[in-house]
Write a structure and sequence with these properties.
InterPro entries: Acyl_CoA_acyltransferase, GNAT_dom, His_Pase_superF_clade-1, His_PPase_superfam, PGM_Phosphatase. Pfam families: Acetyltransf_1, His_Phos_1. This is GNAT family N-acetyltransferase. It comes from Flintibacter hominis. By secondary structure, the chain is of the alpha/beta class. The chain folds into two domains: 209 residues, Rossmann fold (3-Layer(aba) Sandwich), CATH 3.40.50.1240; 153 residues, 3-Layer(aba) Sandwich (Aminopeptidase). Helix content is 33%, strand content 21%. The strands form two sheets. A seven-stranded mixed beta sheet has the order 7-8-9-10-11-13-12, sandwiched between helices. A six-stranded mixed beta sheet has the order 3-2-4-1-5-6. A hairpin with a 2-residue loop joins strand 8 and strand 9. Helix 5 packs across helix 6 and helix 7 packs across helix 8. The chain is elongated. The mean pLDDT is 95.
Length: 384
């Protein structure tokens, strides 16, 4: 009898930034690393003979919870990947909801006929994972194996094992990041010992506990998933200028004059680089924030620069700002940048706390500025 511990990866960028990541190679978040430590503690006294993982960064990194302390090699197999989400990859959930509401609705109800354009169906993902796990189990007869995979693929595999019909897939629960499933394999079929167990995570480390999309009772307000579009500069210049003024005066006060003309010149320069140089964050049809992106400054350091990251005051208690950081990552990473930089006043306590919470660290201080500014940086590259 082979025992399989099938484990979902720790919290990754897509979970936090509310972006669609199937085969997209996302990083682990700061909270995700704390989840990995909790998982390591859980398995400290459990014997494991082999460790396998999908070949994506988020699973390989989570697998370090077991293979590193136990001194085992890590084996990877792309057949253990998440469902392939085709044209939806790295779009925000809000974007797909806005432009393909029927497709999003079908996905959310686990419709067996659903398939992202250019991607896999739910059945194909579950069958692929079942074939991969069957092969691994037969390679390790009588052993105990830890396998690291992904939420939807695991969910569909468990539907196969439990014999849940496609019309009842919507009844399946969603698992927490680093949730553990335990199965046995007798050479022919799997049996579930337990599933979706995240008892090693205290509430403050849970990912799903902070989100509402998975709740069937809808006890919490629906999550706000943003989508992004380039600013319409001809008609929305005042929107930009008003946000800039609000950010300046709320941070620096009224004694240091607001240089609106200078900010407009900078915005135009960044728009000349890309239509995304000034990006509008949208909640449904409502503009709720702005993100300014500069391809040139700090490019010699392989960094992308964020001159302005702004959330409307009435939206600042909804934890939406991190989705703007996610948009910056999605913009700069395909350009080959492995870090983000921005400037923040040292006395802007709210912004300082937000950026540090999400992985930015101070690397210097701006010289020649009208106001004191810390230079802060976040690493967005891959390190295995």
């Amino acid at each position: 009898m082979t025992t399989i511990y099938l484990i979902r990866h720790a919290e990754a960028e897509g979970n936090l930034h509310r972006r669609i990541h199937g085969w997209y190679d996302a990083l682990i978040t700061e909270n995700g690393f704390a989840q990995i430590k909790a998982l390591e503690d859980r398995f400290r006294d459990i014997h494991i003979d082999a460790v396998w993982s999908s070949d994506l960064y988020r699973t390989c990194t989570t697998a370090r919870a077991i293979y590193v302390p136990k001194g085992l090699p890590l084996h990877t197999d792309p057949q253990l990947r998440e469902i392939n989400l085709g044209d939806w990859e790295d779009q925000t959930w809000g974007q797909v909801r806005h432009f393909d509401p029927a497709g999003m609705a079908a996905f959310n109800r686990s419709d067996p006929a659903w398939r992202a354009p250019g991607g896999e169906s739910l059945a194909e993902a579950g069958d692929r994972l079942e074939r991969a796990l069957t092969s691994l189990a037969r390679q390790h007869p009588g052993q105990t194996v830890a396998v690291f995979s992904h939420g939807t693929a695991i969910r569909q595999f468990l539907a196969n094992v439990k014999g849940i019909s496609p019309e009842d897939w919507h009844t399946l629960s969603h698992s927490e990041n680093t949730a553990v499933n335990c199965l046995t394999f007798d050479g022919e079929r799997f049996q579930v010992v337990f599933d979706s167990d995240a008892s090693h995570l205290p509430p403050e480390l849970a990912t799903l506990g902070k989100q509402a999309w998975w709740r069937k009772d809808k006890q919490k307000a629906e999550d706000v998933n943003l989508w992004f579009r380039p600013i319409r500069w001809d008609t929305e210049r005042e929107l930009y200028l008003g946000a800039r003024r609000d950010a300046w005066e709320s941070t620096h006060g009224l004694e240091i004059p607001f240089d609106g003309a200078g900010f407009l010149r900078d915005a135009q320069k960044h728009l000349d680089q890309s239509p995304w140089g000034v990006t509008v964050a949208m909640a449904g049809e409502e503009p709720v924030g702005l993100l300014q992106l500069d391809q040139e400054r700090y490019s010699t350091d392989n960094a992308g620069y964020i001159p302005f990251c702004y959330m409307n005051p009435q939206r600042r208690e909804q934890n939406l700002g991190v989705q703007l950081v996610g948009q910056a990552v999605s913009y700069f990473r395909p350009l080959g940048r492995d870090r983000l930089r921005l400037r923040c006043a040292p006395y802007n306590d709210r912004a300082q706390h937000f950026y540090r919470k999400h992985g930015f660290v101070k690397i210097g201080e701006e010289t020649g500025s009208r106001v004191p500014l810390d230079i802060m940086e976040k690493y967005i590259g891959y390190q295995r």
